## 1
Amino acid sequence: MRRYALGIVVLALTLVAPSSAVAQGTGDVLNEAPLIPIPQDMTYEEYQDMNRRISTGLMRSAIPVPGMMHFYAGEPTTGKWLLATGLAGVAAIIAGAALWEDGEFADTDFDVLTINAGDNGKERRYEKIPVSLEGETPKYRLRELQRDGGAGGPLVALGVITIAGSMIYDFLHGIQVIETKRDRVRFKYGKRLKLQAAARTGTPSVALSYAF
């Protein structure tokens, strides 16, 4: 049953983790921002906010760890909360998988064949379903009886939901945070830009430039 729980975790991470190939298609994250004049009163945090790229955030969020997008967005507190939530989900899955082995076997009206009786981890039970009769000897078909899971089932489900929810929130809200911070800085300093025109000597032309 632990194998099933592990498979559920892997499936959940696969579904919610964005593909790095998709992230690469949204932009070249290796290109540096061009060096431009910076307003004197612009802080380093604002400069970082202005130059954060969603494509880089998508690349980082391809790592199946909750909080990666918020760490990149400059929100370490939220990132730590999401990371802690993801770890709590993993702990719930591990605990649920352990409790699953202690669940009771399902009831049946047929005779039961027990293998490794008394060994909680290896005990298996099969119900003997009559399928034919040869003379006075009945023939049976064995069907394995599953444990009901006890409290392990809800714990595993809770863990999967917790991990998936934290990663989805990190992905969607992280993109929103990056866009909001970037737009706020660009709007603040963009209003101060002034277009300047100057005539060039020699050839008849006009040079346009921006100044704060």
Note: The beta strands are 111-115, 124-134, 137-145, 194-200, 205-211.
## 2
Amino acid sequence: MSDDLPRQDATSRDRSPDERYSLSIEEVADIYEEAGFPRTPRAIQRYCALNKLDCHKAETPTGERYLVAPYSVDRHIKYIKEVSRPSATSRDNSRPDATVRPLENKAEEEPRPTTTSPDQSRQVAATPEGESKYVLSLERENEFLRGEITVKNTQIADLTERARETNHLIAGLQKLLSPLLAAPTRQGGGETQQ
């Protein structure tokens, strides 16, 4: 039963009056910037569209605009802070290894390769797991976009060729029709002189 109450509260937030939605996109951008996570107005609009922020579309004389509930901005900033913490921690883990290596280089030459190779394999195995999914996703997206560019370039080349062919056909029609279109006016002019 208690599990159902938060769901009802969430839906009641969606149906809350306009007073709860008091922040404009620009004000939300300022809040993100003050929190140290600057965002563009377009990014904030995407957050609204993806329901990451509790917002309401309002009709204005210039069109639609989002009005955002302040609590949802705070909630999203807290989420961003939580998500960004692990990346800072993983950077901190690599720094002690970097300081340890120069000490090992000065102290002993031979044990260094044996100790660093397992450390390197651990680092390679530990840090890229989270990053590798992201990197693979980006590589797939880059590959897809490169394919799209190739398709677009092919389409542009085809359309350019068609436009060139159309221009040649129109020029040929003009050459064929110009004597026919010019002839009646000359004949008509000759009849009026007689």
Note: The helical segments are 4-14, 25-34, 41-49, 70-107, 111-193.
